Amino acid sequence: MKTILYSLLAATMMVGCNNSTATKGFDSVDATRFAEVIENEQVLIIDTRTPAEFSEGHIPGAVNIDIDGEEFEAMVAKLDKSRPVAVYCRGGRRSKEAAEHMVSCGLEVTELMDGILSWEGELEK
Predict the structure, then answer these.
(1) 17 carries an active-site annotation
(2) Which of 6, 9, 36, 101 is deepest in the core (most CB within 10 A)?
């Protein structure tokens, strides 16, 4: 019986990306450092807020992948793992959750620690 339970547990953990959150695995940085990171053209900028929040103003070049959207995990799984990712939300909670998931999928992630509320740079609508 234990063997069956362990097998089911292992299979569950292997579905999608590795859901382990034992270690953070990403850099959480302030707005100044985040701006430096996204200067690299290889960095994919991801806004994890809702589409409505995104349309109110986002960091130029950002792609909206709503962490609460039905397609979040599928969209993250399709991201190019050879490109670093810079992720943010409104205040930092959702982007930290998204960053943990992205790291479990094999992505290199930098997260804007206090979200777009701390951003002093240009916004695009």
Answers:
(1) no
(2) 101
Contact by Cβ (8 Å): 31, 121: yes
The predicted model scores a pTM of: 0.82
Catalytic residue among 46, 89, 98, 109: 89
Which residues, 6+ apart, have CB-to-CB distance to 28 below 8 Å? 92, 96, 99, 110, 111, 112, 113
Buried b (16+ CB within 10 A) or exposed e, 80-112: eeeebbbbbbbbbebbbbbbbbbbbbebbbbbb
Model confidence pLDDT, tens digit, residues 79-114: 999 999 999 999 999 999 999 999 999 999 999 999
Domains of the chain, start order: 21-118 (3.40.250.10)
Q: Is the dihedral of CA 117, 86, 64, 25 positive or negative?
A: negative
Q: Is the pLDDT of residue 64 over 80?
A: yes
How many residues belong to the chain? Answer: 125
